[in-house]
Amino acid sequence: MKSRRDDANAPAPAPAPTDDAPFEVSMKRLAEIVGRLERGDLPLEESLALFEEGVSVSARSQAKLEAAQRRVEELLAVDDEGRSRRAPLDPLVD
Asked: Cys-Cys link to 77, which of 3, 45, 85, 90 (CB 3.0-4.6 A)?
């Protein structure tokens, strides 16, 4: 059983990343969430809240990865004759 002293020495959880947070910040928060859930010492309601946050962070991160993949595919695209296509690209949004 954890004591109050254990809770006082635990690092404070990082704030939930915002929609515009860098991908790396979101991944760090997701790792923290997974670590806390894997310990299995949280009350049910707190576990559910963390799980919900993790699903949200994961979905936003997946969307950023998909946008990056589309951008790479556009950069590597070639025409029917094997030449690089040069199309203007929208800047990658973090």
From this structure: 85
pLDDT tens track for 37-62: 999 999 999 999 999 999 999 999 99
In a 13 Å sphere around the CA of 1, the CA atoms on its Cβ side amount to 2
Of the candidates 34, 4, 2, the residue with the CA atom closest to the CA atom of residue 13: 34
By the 8 A CB rule, do 81 and 73 touch?
no
Give the total number of structural domains in the chain: 1
The CB density around residue 21, as the number of other CB atoms within 10 Å, is: 19
Coil, strand or helix: which one is 84?
Answer: strand
